[in-house]
Amino acid sequence: MTHTHPLFDAIDDNALAARFIDDDAAVRRLAVIEAADLEDEAWLPFLAHALRHDADADVRRTAAQRLGAWDTDEAVDALCAALADSDTGTREAAAESLTALKDPVAGARLLPHFATADAFTRAALLRALRELRLPEAAGPALTALADASPVVRREAVGVLGWLRHTHALEHLTQLARADTSVDVRHVAVGALGFATDDSVLATLTHALSDEEWRVREEAAATLGKLRLVAARSALESALADDYWQVTLQAARALGRLRDAASTHAVSELLTFPISNVRKEAALALGELGNIDALAVLEAALGDGDPEVRKAARIAIAQIGERCAS
C-alpha cells in the first residue's frame, strides 16, 4: 500500500507504524491489534486512519472494535464516520464501540451527526447516547419518536427513558398504546417506569391487554416497580394470562404492592404447573405479609422443586417477623 498522509512520513523509524501500510492486509490488521493493546493514545491516529482509509474491510472492522476503548474526539469522530462504511460488519462494529462511551462530553460529539444520518446511523447514535444521560440528547430523541424506522423509534424511547424526560411522557404513552412495532411498544412501556401520574397508570393497565405477551409482561414488571396500588385489580386479572411469563411478573408486582387483599389470588398460584411461577408466588406472599397465607405456604414446603420450598420458608419467616413486630 502507498500513503501520502503526514502520519506516515517517519515510519522508517518505527517498525510497528510501517506495518500499518504493509501490502498484506493480514499484517495491517495485526498492527491494529498490537497498537491498540499498547493502550497508548499516541497510536490513536494510526487506528483512526486505518478505520477511515484502509482498503480491507477486516482491517477497518478490527479498528472499529479496538477504538471503543477510547472516549477521545479523534476516536469518536472516526467511529461516527464508520457508521456509513460500505461494509456491514464495520458499521456494526463501530455502532457497538460507540455504546462503550462513558464520557458525556464525548457523547456530545455525536449530536451533529444526526443532521445527515441514515436510519442505521440514527439508531446507532441514539443507542450510544442512551446510558450517557446527556440532556442535550433529548431534542434529537424527541424528534426521532416520529421516525419512519421502528428501530430508530425504539432507541429514541430508550434515551428518553434513561433521561427520565417528563416532557416526553405524552409521546411515550402514545407509543406504548398504539405503535405498530411490538419492540417499540415494549420499550415504551418499560420507559414509563419513572412517573406515576394517571396517564401512566392508564397506559400500563391498558398494556396488560396488549396482543403481544412481551408487552404485557413488561407492563406488569413496570407496574411492580412503580408500586401503583391502583393497579391491583388489573394485575390480579393478569395472573390468568395465557403466558406464564406474564403471570410471573404480575405475581411479583402484586407482592411489591404489599396489599394483603391480593393474598387469595396469589395463593392460588402455588399449584401452578410452572415452578418458577410457584416460587414467585411464594415470595410475593411473604411480601404481602398476610397470616392467612401461612397454611398454603406450609403446604408448599412439600413442593417438588427445592427453589419453591426455599421461597416458602423465606415467606413464612417474613410473615412471622411481621406478626411479631
Structure notes:
This protein has helices at residues 15-19, 25-37, 44-53, 57-66, 73-82, 88-98, 104-108, 119-130, 138-144, 150-163, 169-178, 182-191, 198-207, 213-226, 232-238, 244-257, 263-267, 275-288, 294-300, 306-324. The longest helix is centred in the last third of the chain and has 19 residues, at 306-324. Helix 3 packs parallel to helix 5 and helix 14 runs parallel beside helix 16 (244-257). Among the domains are: 1-100, Leucine-rich Repeat Variant, CATH 1.25.10; 258-325, Leucine-rich Repeat Variant (Alpha Horseshoe), CATH 1.25.10.10. The protein is built from 20 helices and no strands. The chain starts with 14 loop residues before the first helix and ends with a helix. With 325 residues, the chain is an all-alpha fold.
CATH-defined fold name of the domain at 1-100: Leucine-rich Repeat Variant
Give the SSE order as H and E letters.
HHHHHHHHHHHHHHHHHHHH
CATH architecture of the domain at 1-100: Alpha Horseshoe
- Structural category is mainly alpha
Mean pLDDT: 94
The top level CATH class name of the domain at 1-100: Mainly Alpha
Number of helices: 20
- Roughly what fraction of the amino acids lie in strands? under 5%
Name the quaternary structure: single chain
Number of strands: 0
Helix and strand topology:
Layout: H1 15-19, H2 25-37, H3 44-53, H4 57-66, H5 73-82, H6 88-98, H7 104-108, H8 119-130, H9 138-144, H10 150-163, H11 169-178, H12 182-191, H13 198-207, H14 213-226, H15 232-238, H16 244-257, H17 263-267, H18 275-288, H19 294-300, H20 306-324
Helix pairs in contact: 2-4, 3-4, 3-5, 4-6, 5-6, 6-8, 8-10, 9-10, 10-12, 11-12, 11-13, 12-14, 13-14, 14-16, 15-16, 16-18, 18-20, 19-20
